[in-house]
Amino acid sequence: MAKPTDSSHATAETRQLGLVAAILSLGYVFWVVGAMEMIERLAYYGVKAVATLYAKDPLSKGGLGVTMTEFGTVLTAWALVQSALPVFTGGLSDRFGYKRTIAASTVIKICGYLLMAMLPSFGGFFAGAVVLAAGTAVFKPGIQGTLVKATKRENSSMAWGIFYQTVNIGGFLGPLVAGFMRKMEWRYVFLACAAIISLNFLMLLMYTEPGKADREAELARKKAAGEQTSLWRESLGELKKPHVWPYLLIFSGFWFMFNSLFDVLPAHLEEWVDTRDVVTTLRTAPGAVWGAAKFVAMGAAGLLAAIATPISQAMSEGPVTASQVARFFVVLNPAGTEIQPEGMLNINSMLIMLTCFLFAALSARMSAISSMVIGTLFAAAGLFASGASQLGWISVAAIAVFSVGEMLSSPKFSEYIGNFAPNDKKGMYLGFSQISLAIGWTLEGNLGPRLYDWLASKDTFSRQMLVEKGMAKAAVDQIPQGEAFTRLVAYLDQLGQNADPHAVTAQLAAQHNPGVIWLVMGAVGILSAVGIWWYGQWVRKLTSAGYKAD
Prior knowledge:
Layout: H1 19-24, H2 28-56, H3 68-84, H4 86-96, H5 98-118, H6 122-149, H7 156-181, H8 186-197, H9 200-204, H10 212-224, H11 231-239, H12 245-263, H13 265-272, H14 276-283, H15 287-314, H16 322-330, H17 341-364, H18 368-386, H19 392-420, H20 426-455, H21 458-468, H22 473-477, H23 484-494, H24 501-512, H25 517-544
Helix pairs in contact: 2-6, 2-7, 2-8, 3-6, 3-20, 4-5, 4-6, 4-20, 5-6, 5-8, 6-20, 7-8, 7-17, 7-19, 12-18, 12-20, 12-25, 13-17, 15-16, 17-19, 18-19, 18-25, 19-20, 21-23
């Protein structure tokens, strides 16, 4: 075999710079692509965080009124397109340039959001999700390829950690926007996301592709020498290398868990978790904590007033206040008594947004394999805890534990594959990384909602109880999808029984134990962690035997 470059060695571990030195070493292009990714994620998670809620919402409330199993067909198509397409679009980014593919992806993603807004039906959302997935597939390799070329091995851990942090700034703000917009009308969520992603056209004016001259010179050389092969042949040739495909296959277990957090957990939070304890704690927090929160809210209110006041006045609510801003950031329900699922889920993005650089510094002191194994185990523990109780604070803790695991494993996954990719195939290999996501998300998108309908559907359990309490089955079958629990509470009230919604929820949970679904999800993570550990041992043996990843 030909002697490999440093970047192509599968197991090379390079000593990382310290925290401050690594941050200072990151250049202008890195921060531009970080901002572009933040904008893209803001729009993307504005939809992703509430997609399950939109699907489950009954038609009478403007939702799709479908079961989780039916929604799973959308998730499966979304996952396949978004995750499998980069195998080939990564090569397009290397061949035609990152800037062109990023611009094209922005146009495609705008079309996806507009389809969702203009066609408020199952078919319309399905079409919009597929188009959005295609745009994301084109976007990712160009952004991540730029990041790899704009950094060095010595600062790559910190670069990927900070990049992941900027991703989650967008991931944090997106659900806040969606949570606010859906209180007015569902289509405003999609229109807002279309407007947000269009801001990347402005960012492209500041973007300069690193290594563009070298890329074009290498392409010209290959073309002149007749060495340029078709992209699909080149991609398959790289994928067949023995250190590549097992890595992608094994890590798919992590992506199975990760996507269950966004596809299944919102339904669980909405149906089974009582967040009144969290709201009560926030309202009765010690003076210093509450004072700090009010200070932040007042500052945010002043910052947003110029933009938000015309909107709020148009809605006849008067000027923006600190209380309204606080409710916006916590994502309270209209009554102000509980936190909406997207608000709870946003704990994940908030923690990553605030602390990922610290965990990047921690993971830089570990081998990539060790960081990924520990992180995957933490994520699995978070999912186990998600089903352990209906208490809001237990769910908060579970999401926090998962977030720590995500910060230790997910950025390291991309860093690792970006480092062992050949220098002229960074975009291609980062496109390959989506294969792992494709396997994990496709399996989860198909199985997760089905498991939820089987093991944890509140609508299904409510229908069963209605029959048990004496309602005719034919009448129960006529209840629209998503409205069975509301009918159950009203029916119990007619019977003179305890009709408090939280008490009825607790009764259903005691009968059916819906938390068992998270034992299944967490078990996938344990298997994945074992597989990652095995991969590390196996690659060390390959390296000792003289294998070169060229």
